[in-house]
Amino acid sequence: MAAVNVLSVSLYGPQTTKFFSPFSFQITIECLQQLADDLEWRLVYVGSAESDEYDQVLDSILVGPVSVGTSKFILEAPGPDPARIPLGDALGVTAVLLMGLYQNKEFIRIGYFVNNELDPPGEYHGQDIFNHIRREVLTDKPRVTRFQIDDWNASDNTNSIPMEMSNMGSEDMQTTERVYGFPVESAGIDFIEVLTDADLCKQIFRQLDLHQLGSCRRVCRSWRSFIAAGINFGEIDLSDIEWNETHDMNDAHETEMEQSLLQFALQQSSPELTWLDLSHAKPLTDAFLASWLNKCGSHLEHLDLGWCSKLTPECVDQIVKNCEKIESLRITFIDGGKSIFSDVQLVDKILQKYPNLSELQLDGMIDIRLEKMAEIFKDREISVGFPCGNISENGIGKFLEKCPNVKYLGLELCTDISANFIQHLRSQYPRTNIKSSHFATDFCIWMSESNNVTFVFPEIKDWKEPIPKEKFFEFAKFLPAEVKTDAEGHLSVEGDADRTVEIFQSAGFDEIMDREDGDFIENSADEGK
């Protein structure tokens, strides 16, 4: 029978505070027998789910002498030391642990989830991130473990033994293992131990995406160990990750987090991986890709490396070396955004290795390789894209003559191909979805920039291509209104003016003026248009 019962624990102060604010808890206990020594109470902040070495004892106090009966006291501890927290664990859900000890033996442990979020959201670097964190202690479902102490007044300091306990007080406390992150709704039941079938457990985890799986590592040690051994995803898609768009990989915090994400994705990839989308993965290097393909390349069918700017042409050799079953391949704007496939030898390596592709996108293509490609893909249904290609109208015309069953043809930023020719191709090959850079429907947004109008292509979200002002009016006719310049250089709008003004406002034009004869839009940075 326990000599001390904890009747209630409540947060003493605001639930949501700044990261550095102190923790305060009001604790009510019931002592059932006279104790020879004081009770010790510790508050521990879990700095990382990866290792106990990042745990911080925020404070430790002695309470006593404790009389028989009910007692109430407040434990206040300073906020955690950010220098002892890995930057990759600064945000998200962690835990704070309240421990009760007697004669160095723990008799109760209460875990509260703590959610750390940026307020306001933004990009912060290094330790400065902690100055912008809002901390929230989630008090609705504390997790409690009681430990059995056989003799409360024994002189030895042997460890106490964990035991189950019932719900407790008005806060609905529940028993579980030590908490590292998100709550376990099963209240202490570990399905890994219950099922015992590792393959079945992996199938359950594979229902999650990588973000969710990463969170599961924080639940308890058994989950973290199981996930660390690898869940073996058959498909990995990182295309929706918001990578560091500044290309400034000198930022330690960003670098650590992004490289950790890539390493975790590799760890969770099955050797029989069939789908790998790493498009826009800014930190991906040739060496890291080689590691991935060495492990998973033999069964890979789909590989997307678009906009992986740190890759170099050497990645083509790694692909050809490790991947035998590729059916869909995109390699565009790597090596700092260059068009590397003006090198015909690189194109030949891919065409010779993978003659049965169903989808291929390479940038910087030239006419002579289009001819070879047409011979290989003749009469097949295939999707191809040649953004920023140095290809002529004659070259693409001959390609489609030999490959009339092409399903998709991407010609974005092919400057030697005119709008009239695109219209001709679309009428001649109506079954082919042709993308270009010539019409309003080809663009997502545009914004003013010095003496140019910058267009952003929806299919190539990172690309911003400056277009001369005089060419802008070729595009303007596709707006929901007629756009003209008046004698003073203002743009006048006739038609659906409200919608057009909206477009120009979102495009960064500074001054909007209403006149009786229509809406006029002026960009003060671009005089004399």
Q: For the report, how would you describe the main beta sheet?
A: 8 strands, mixed
The amount of beta strand, in percent, is 25-35%
Q: What is the straight-line distance between the termini? A: 88 Å
Shape from CA axes? elongated
Q: Helix proportion of residues, in percent?
A: 10-25%
Write the layout of secondary structure elements.
Layout: E1 4-11, E2 16-18, E3 23-31, E4 39-45, E5 56-63, E6 69-77, E7 92-102, E8 105-118, E9 133-148, E10 161-163, E11 174-175, H1 191-195, H2 198-205, H3 210-216, H4 221-228, E12 235-237, H5 252-267, E13 275-277, H6 286-296, E14 302-304, H7 314-322, E15 328-331, H8 344-353, E16 359-362, H9 367-377, E17 383-385, H10 393-402, E18 408-410, H11 419-428, E19 433-435, E20 445-449, E21 452-457, E22 460-468, H12 469-476, E23 481-485, E24 491-495, H13 497-506, E25 511-515, E26 518-522
Parallel strand pairs: 9-11, 12-13, 13-14, 14-15, 15-16, 16-17, 17-18, 18-19
Antiparallel strand pairs: 1-3, 2-9, 3-6, 4-5, 4-7, 7-8, 8-9, 9-10, 20-21, 21-22, 23-24, 24-26, 25-26
Helix pairs in contact: 6-7, 9-10
